What does this fold into?
Amino acid sequence: MLIIPVIDIRNAQVVHARCGKRDDYRPLHTALCHNSDPLELVHAYLSLYPFTEIYLADLDAIEQTGQNDAVVTSLHNHFSDLTFWLDAGNNIADDLHSLERLRPVIGTETGVTSQQLACHTGHDSKPILSLDFLGSNLKGDDSLLENTKSWPEDVIVMSLQRVGSGHGPDLDLLSYIQSIAAEKNLFMAGGIRSEHDLDELCSRGVAGVLLASALHNNKISVETLNKYRV
It folds into this structure.
């Protein structure tokens, strides 16, 4: 099972995501490093464990208030052994598409349709679909749930209201997505808080998980991470 740390970026700084309420996100305070600089946080993550993938959310691009392309490019060029998953809404610049170790994340909250998703899958380098849920409701085009053939191979099951909540992953939501798309590689995001949660998700056959708060709060140890080394 792949463990993928998350970095949420606003105004070139890392912020702490909580329950999908982006207006309330504040600069990150973490036991892993002394500031909210994205470069320092990636160094801190790698000092903890040899992660191979990092998830980046460019909140300015998602909210269409700006972009953090320079930060993304700097991280990509600085960490040559890492692959970055980038969620930038519909605003990934052409020069970012050219980065060889960057995979675009297409969130349903952007309103992407099945037809548009098929175009992304045909042109982008290994795109990833993020199914963005608030509770049991998909943010975006509900018809995507009826056309799983348009989905790329890798799919994030994102429970936005559980992000940073410590309430645990939404296992009912996971079961539902598995029932309609068993052939996809599913990655769980939102609420994961402990070794127990990781064990449960692994037993349910997920391909990987996205983590942030549990790492910053030292709720998941290096020994636990090593259990899932791919």
DSSP finds nine helices and eleven strands in the chain. The radius of gyration is 16 Å.
